[in-house]
C-alpha cells in the first residue's frame, strides 16, 4: 500500500503561493528525493506532511497511510509527528536545543509518545544514539550540541527522529555543511534505515547526494514539479531543461575548465600574463601552534602563475590556518611565505601594506565579510580606490559586469542579494585591486550545486581573462578535482600527499586520500 | 567548516581564582563607594554639627556646636576625618546616626527587611507580568504583538512618582479598594509593589519577547514540534529558557532600579524602609547614615550580580565566546 500520497498540493503564505501542483507517492520502504535549489519549495512541501508549514495548505489528496492530513485534528497530527513520521530538519548544526544535553532531545520523543519511565527513557536514548553510530553513547548523551562535532550532532538528530521507529523519515538537507567522509557516514546510516523498511523522503539541492539513496526523483523549481520519475531514468535521460542544468552543474568527475553552466567561456585576454612555470606564491616549512595544539606543521608548496593549487582536507585539518598564513593574517612560528619571489611573511605589516593589493581572498560566508551599511556599489568603489572613495564610477559598472552582476544591483545592500550574488560581489571586490593571487577559502561550500556551478565557471573565466592564480581551499573533492592543477591533501595540520591533481586522484598513495575519494558522492 | 580551526581552546578559570577576584572587586568597590559618598556629602552647604543638634532651625549655641564638633571629630582636618572613618569602617563599625542617635547598623537593620520584601515582590511581579505579555504577544498574532509593544514601551517610560499617585487616585481615592498609605499586611503592599513592578515589567517584557521570538523561530523548536511536542511543551521546555537568559542578565540592573525606585515609593506611601531612611538622611546631612545605606545597597548590588552570573552559568552552560579568531560556520 502507498504510504504517502500527494496530489495537487499547494501552499501559500498570506496570499502568495509558493508551492503548487505538486504530486508524488512514497511506498513503504522506498526512498523518494525532492531535488531543487533553495527557494524551490521542497522544504515547504515536506513540512506539509507534518502540518508545520505555517501557511495555508490545499491539496486534492494529502494522505499518510490511513490519515487524511487535510482534515486531521491538531492532536492527531501531534501523534503522527515523531511517532509515525520522523523529521530531520535542515541545519544539522542548529536543530538541537543548544542549552540541553542531546540525550534529552531523544528522551523527549519517548516522553511524548510512550509511557516509559525516566530511567527507561534514558537507557533507550543511549541505545538509540549507539544505533545511529555515535561512539561512547552514554557520555555523548550528557553533552550539549556545542560539545559535539557536526557529524555527531546530525547522528543525534537522526536518533531522535527514529526513536519511535516511524514508517516515514523526512530528511531535509541531512548532509549539507558536513565533511565528505562524514556525509558518506550519514548516507550509510540513512541507507541502512531504508533497507530496514523505513520510507525516506530525502530533500537536497545536490543530485549526487540523493542519487545514491533514492529510487525515485521529484525535481522542483520555483514551487512546481518540473520532472519526476525513477532515479536512473531521470539521471540518464533528463527530459526537462532544468533537470539537465542540475545534472550538468555537478562538478564531480568533470575535466578542468569544462563548463558547468551553459554560459560560454570567456576568451583569454592577450595583454595578461599567461599560465607559466613562474612561481607567484611559495611556502616552505610552515608551522603554526595555538597553545599546545599544532594547527599547521611543515607545510610547503609553490603556486605557478595562472595555475590553481587545491588544498583539500576536513574540518580541523589546518587548511584555513594555511590560508591565514598565506594572507599574512597570522605569523608562522616557523617557515616562510614568499610572494612574487620576494619576502612576505617576514615583513612588518607597514612594509606589507603596499604589496597587499597583490593578493586577495574570498570566503565561504561572503555576507559577513561586507560592511552591512554599505551598498554593493559602495563596497566595490571602496575596493577599486583602495579605500579612498565610495563614489559610483564607470569602473564599478565594468567590474560588476565582469563578474556577471547587473549594474542595477549597485544600489542594493548585500544582505538583500541571493547567496550566489553575494559571492559574486565578494569576487568582484577581491579582483578590484588587480591581484595576482586569489585565496579562495571554501568559496562555494554554502551554495546550491546550481549556483556553485555558476561561481566555479566565473572563477575559471577570471583565471583565463586575468591570468589569476588560485589557492583553492575546500573539503569537497568533486570541486577541487574540477578546479585545480595541483593538489595538496591535508590532515591534522600536515601535508599527506601532494602532486598534480589527476595523478593524486588516479593513483592515491595514502589510504586516507583513497577513503576521501571513495566517499565523495557521484551521480548515478 | 563548522569547527573553529584556529580558535584557541576557551579559557576556563577555576572557581577559586574567580571567587578571589570577585571578593577583591567587592572590597575595592565598597571602598570607592564609601570614599565618594564621604566627600560628596560634604559638598552640600551647611554645618554637620548643626545637623547633629537638630538642623539649622535648632539655633544651637556656639558652645554646644563646639562640643559636638569635638565629640564627633568634626574639628579635625578632612583627610584625618576620612582616615578615622575608614578605620572604623574596616572594623565593621558604621558609626552612629547624627539625627537618630542610634548605631547606623541598627537603623539599617530595622529598615532593610521592608525594602527587600518590597524589591523582591516587585521583581517577581514584574517577571510574571513580563512573561505573560511576552507569551501573549508571541501567540496572539499581529494584534496582540502590537498591543503588547505599546504597553511595554509606555510602562517602561512611566516615572515612579507619577505612577504611584495615579494608582492612589484610582484604587484608593476613586474606587476605595486599597489604602493610600502603606499599612501593615498584604493590602498595604499592593500599590507600592505595582508602582515598582510595572515600569520594570515594561523593560523585561521587551527583552524577553525578542528572545522568545528568536527561540520560537529557531530550527530546534521546529525539530521539537516535528517530534510531536505540544505548544505548551515547546514553550516551557525550550523557549522559556532562552527567554530567561537576557532577563537574568538584566536582574543586576533591575535591583539598582528597584532600590532607587524604593526611595520614591517609600516616601509617597509613607512606608518604612532604607529608601526613605536614605532620603531623610541626605536631607539632614546625616553622613554616617547616608554612607551606611549606600554601602549596604552597593553590597546588595554586587551580591545580586554575582548571583545572576551564577544563575546564568547554570541556565546557559556553554562556554562564553572567546575573542580569538573563530572558524567559519
UniProtKB/TrEMBL annotation, chain A:
<dbReference type="GO" id="GO:0015833">
    <property type="term" value="P:peptide transport"/>
</dbReference>
<dbReference type="InterPro" id="IPR027417">
    <property type="entry name" value="P-loop_NTPase"/>
</dbReference>
<keyword id="KW-0067">ATP-binding</keyword>
<dbReference type="Pfam" id="PF08352">
    <property type="entry name" value="oligo_HPY"/>
</dbReference>
<keyword id="KW-0547">Nucleotide-binding</keyword>
<feature type="domain" description="ABC transporter">
    <location>
        <begin position="281"/>
        <end position="517"/>
    </location>
</feature>
<feature type="domain" description="ABC transporter">
    <location>
        <begin position="4"/>
        <end position="247"/>
    </location>
</feature>
<dbReference type="GO" id="GO:0005524">
    <property type="term" value="F:ATP binding"/>
</dbReference>
<dbReference type="InterPro" id="IPR003439">
    <property type="entry name" value="ABC_transporter-like_ATP-bd"/>
</dbReference>
<dbReference type="InterPro" id="IPR003593">
    <property type="entry name" value="AAA+_ATPase"/>
</dbReference>
<dbReference type="GO" id="GO:0016887">
    <property type="term" value="F:ATP hydrolysis activity"/>
</dbReference>
<comment type="similarity">
    <text>Belongs to the ABC transporter superfamily.</text>
</comment>
<dbReference type="InterPro" id="IPR017871">
    <property type="entry name" value="ABC_transporter-like_CS"/>
</dbReference>
<keyword id="KW-0813">Transport</keyword>
<protein>
    <submittedName>
        <fullName>ABC transporter ATP-binding protein</fullName>
    </submittedName>
</protein>
<dbReference type="Pfam" id="PF00005">
    <property type="entry name" value="ABC_tran"/>
</dbReference>
<dbReference type="InterPro" id="IPR013563">
    <property type="entry name" value="Oligopep_ABC_C"/>
</dbReference>
<dbReference type="GO" id="GO:0055085">
    <property type="term" value="P:transmembrane transport"/>
</dbReference>
<dbReference type="InterPro" id="IPR050319">
    <property type="entry name" value="ABC_transp_ATP-bind"/>
</dbReference>
TrEMBL record, chain B:
<keyword id="KW-0813">Transport</keyword>
<feature type="transmembrane region" description="Helical">
    <location>
        <begin position="149"/>
        <end position="171"/>
    </location>
</feature>
<protein>
    <submittedName>
        <fullName>ABC transporter permease</fullName>
    </submittedName>
</protein>
<comment type="similarity">
    <text>Belongs to the binding-protein-dependent transport system permease family.</text>
</comment>
<dbReference type="Pfam" id="PF00528">
    <property type="entry name" value="BPD_transp_1"/>
</dbReference>
<feature type="transmembrane region" description="Helical">
    <location>
        <begin position="183"/>
        <end position="204"/>
    </location>
</feature>
<keyword id="KW-1003">Cell membrane</keyword>
<keyword id="KW-0472">Membrane</keyword>
<feature type="transmembrane region" description="Helical">
    <location>
        <begin position="116"/>
        <end position="137"/>
    </location>
</feature>
<dbReference type="GO" id="GO:0005886">
    <property type="term" value="C:plasma membrane"/>
</dbReference>
<keyword id="KW-1133">Transmembrane helix</keyword>
<feature type="domain" description="ABC transmembrane type-1">
    <location>
        <begin position="112"/>
        <end position="308"/>
    </location>
</feature>
<keyword id="KW-0812">Transmembrane</keyword>
<dbReference type="GO" id="GO:0071916">
    <property type="term" value="F:dipeptide transmembrane transporter activity"/>
</dbReference>
<dbReference type="InterPro" id="IPR035906">
    <property type="entry name" value="MetI-like_sf"/>
</dbReference>
<feature type="transmembrane region" description="Helical">
    <location>
        <begin position="20"/>
        <end position="44"/>
    </location>
</feature>
<feature type="transmembrane region" description="Helical">
    <location>
        <begin position="247"/>
        <end position="269"/>
    </location>
</feature>
<feature type="transmembrane region" description="Helical">
    <location>
        <begin position="289"/>
        <end position="308"/>
    </location>
</feature>
<dbReference type="InterPro" id="IPR000515">
    <property type="entry name" value="MetI-like"/>
</dbReference>
<dbReference type="InterPro" id="IPR045621">
    <property type="entry name" value="BPD_transp_1_N"/>
</dbReference>
<dbReference type="Pfam" id="PF19300">
    <property type="entry name" value="BPD_transp_1_N"/>
</dbReference>
Amino acid at each position: 500500500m502507498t504510504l504517502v500520497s500527494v496530489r495537487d498540493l499547494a501552499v501559500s503564505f498570506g496570499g502568495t503561493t509558493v508551492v503548487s501542483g505538486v504530486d508524488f507517492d512514497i511506498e513503504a520502504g522506498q526512498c523518494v528525493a525532492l531535488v531543487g535549489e533553495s527557494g524551490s519549495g521542497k522544504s515547504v512541501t515536506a513540512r506539509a506532511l507534518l502540518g508545520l508549514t505555517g501557511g495555508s495548505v490545499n491539496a486534492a489528496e494529502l494522505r499518510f497511510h490511513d490519515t487524511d492530513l487535510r482534515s486531521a485534528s491538531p492532536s492527531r497530527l501531534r501523534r503522527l509527528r515523531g511517532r509515525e513520521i520522523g523529521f530531520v530538519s535542515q541545519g544539522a548544526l542548529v536543530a538541537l536545543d543548544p542549552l540541553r544535553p542531546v540525550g534529552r532531545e531523544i528522551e523527549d520523543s519517548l516522553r511524548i509518545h510512550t509511557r516509559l519511565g525516566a530511567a527507561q527513557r534514558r537507557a533507550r536514548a543511549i541505545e538509540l544514539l549507539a544505533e545511529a553510530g555515535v561512539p561512547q553513547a552514554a557520555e555523548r548523551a550528557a553533552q550539549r550540541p556545542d560539545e559535539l562535532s557536526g557529524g555527531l550532532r546530525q547522528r543525534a538528530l537522526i536518533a531522535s527522529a527514529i526513536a519511535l521507529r516511524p514508517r516515514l523519515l523526512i530528511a531535509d538537507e541531512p548532509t549539507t555543511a558536513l565533511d565528505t567522509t562524514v556525509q558518506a557516514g550519514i548516507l550509510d546510516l540513512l541507507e541502512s534505515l531504508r533497507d530496514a523498511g523505513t520510507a525516506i523522503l530525502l530533500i537536497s539541492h545536490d543530485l549526487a547526494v540523493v542519487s545514491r539513496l533514492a529510487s525515485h526523483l521529484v525535481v522542483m523549481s520555483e514551487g512546481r514539479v518540473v520532472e519526476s520519475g525513477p532515479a536512473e531514468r531521470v539521471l540518464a535521460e533528463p527530459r526537462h531543461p532544468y533537470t539537465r542544468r542540475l545534472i550538468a552543474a555537478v562538478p564531480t568527475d568533470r575535466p578542468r575548465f569544462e563548463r558547468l553552466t551553459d554560459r560560454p567561456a570567456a576568451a583569454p585576454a592577450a595583454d595578461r600574463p599567461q599560465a607559466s612555470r613562474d612561481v607567484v606564491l611559495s611556502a616552505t616549512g610552515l608551522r603554526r601552534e595555538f597553545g599546545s595544539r599544532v594547527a599547521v606543521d611543515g607545510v610547503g608548496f609553490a603556486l605557478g602563475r595562472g595555475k590553481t593549487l587545491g588544498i583539500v582536507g576536513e574540518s580541523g585539518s589546518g587548511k584555513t590556518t594555511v590560508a591565514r598564513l598565506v594572507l599574512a593574517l597570522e605569523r608562522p612560528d616557523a617557515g616562510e611565505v614568499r610572494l612574487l619571489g620576494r619576502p612576505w611573511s617576514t615583513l612588518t605589516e607597514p612594509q606589507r601594506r603596499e604589496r597587499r593589493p597583490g593578493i586577495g581572498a574570498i570566503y565561504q560566508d561572503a555576507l559577513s565579510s561586507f560592511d552591512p551599511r554599505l551598498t554593493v556599489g559602495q563596497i566595490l568603489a571602496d575596493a577599486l580606490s583602495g579605500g579612498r572613495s565610495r563614489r559610483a564610477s564607470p569602473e564599478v559598472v565594468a567590474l560588476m559586469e565582469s563578474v556577471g552582476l547587473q549594474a542595477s544591483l549597485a544600489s542594493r545592500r548585500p544582505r538583500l542579494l541571493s547567496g550566489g550574488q553575494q559571492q559574486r560581489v565578494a569576487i568582484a571586490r577581491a579582483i578590484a585591486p588587480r591581484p595576482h593571487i586569489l585565496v579562495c577559502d571554501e568559496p562555494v561550500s554554502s551554495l546550491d550545486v546550481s549556483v556553485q556551478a555558476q561561481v566555479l565557471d566565473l572563477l575559471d573565466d577570471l583565471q583565463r581573462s586575468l591570468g589569476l592564480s588560485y589557492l583553492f581551499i575546500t573539503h569537497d573533492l568533486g570541486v577541487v578535482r574540477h578546479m585545480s592543477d595541483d593538489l595538496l591533501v591535508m590532515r591534522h595540520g600536515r601535508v599527506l600527499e601532494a602532486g598534480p591533481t589527476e595523478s593524486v586522484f588516479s593513483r592515491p598513495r595514502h589510504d586516507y586520500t583513497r577513503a576521501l575519494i571513495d566517499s565523495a558522492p557521484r551521480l548515478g | 567548516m563548522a569547527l573553529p580551526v584556529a580558535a584557541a581552546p576557551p579559557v576556563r578559570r577555576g572557581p577559586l581564582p574567580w571567587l578571589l577576584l570577585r571578593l577583591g572587586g567587592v572590597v575595592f568597590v565598597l571602598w570607592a563607594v564609601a570614599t565618594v559618598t564621604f566627600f560628596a556629602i560634604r559638598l552640600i552647604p551647611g554645618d554637620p554639627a548643626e545637623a547633629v543638634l537638630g538642623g539649622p532651625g535648632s539655633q544651637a549655641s556656639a558652645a554646644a556646636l563646639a562640643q559636638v564638633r569635638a565629640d564627633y571629630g568634626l574639628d579635625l582636618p578632612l583627610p584625618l576625618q576620612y582616615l578615622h572613618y575608614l578605620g572604623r569602617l574596616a572594623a565593621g563599625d558604621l558609626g552612629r546616626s547624627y539625627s537618630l542617635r542610634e548605631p547606623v547598623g541598627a537603623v539599617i537593620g530595622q529598615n532593610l527587611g521592608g525594602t527587600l520584601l518590597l524589591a523582591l515582590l516587585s521583581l517577581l511581579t514584574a517577571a510574571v507580568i513580563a512573561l505573560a505579555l511576552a507569551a501573549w504577544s508571541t501567540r496572539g498574532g499581529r494584534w496582540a504583538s502590537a498591543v503588547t509593544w505599546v504597553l511595554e514601551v509606555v510602562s517602561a517610560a512611566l516615572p515612579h512618582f507619577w505612577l504611584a499617585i495615579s494608582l492612589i487616585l484610582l484604587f484608593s481615592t476613586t474606587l476605595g479598594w486599597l489604602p493610600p498609605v502603606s499599612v501593615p499586611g498584604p493590602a498595604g503592599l499592593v500599590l507600592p509593589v505595582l508602582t515598582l513592578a510595572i515600569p520594570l515589567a515594561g523593560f523585561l517584557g521587551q527583552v524577553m519577547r525578542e528572545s522568545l521570538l528568536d527561540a520560537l523561530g529557531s530550527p530546534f523548536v521546529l525539530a521539537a514540534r516535528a517530534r510531536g511536542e505540544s505548544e505548551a511543551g515547546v514553550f516551557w521546555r525550550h523557549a522559556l529558557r532562552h527567554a530567561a537568559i537576557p532577563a537574568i542578565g538584566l536582574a543586576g540592573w533591575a535591583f539598582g532600579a528597584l532600590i532607587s525606585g524604593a526611595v520614591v515609593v517609600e516616601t509617597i506611601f509613607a512606608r518604612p524602609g532604607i529608601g526613605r531612611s536614605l532620603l531623610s538622611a541626605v536631607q539632614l546631612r546625616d553622613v554616617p547614615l547616608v554612607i551606611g545605606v549606600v554601602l549596604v545597597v552597593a553590597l546588595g548590588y554586587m551580591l545580586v550580580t554575582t548571583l545572576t552570573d551564577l544563575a546564568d552559568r547554570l541556565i546557559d552552560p556553554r562556554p562564553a565566546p572567546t575573542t580569538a579568531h573563530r572558524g567559519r560556520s
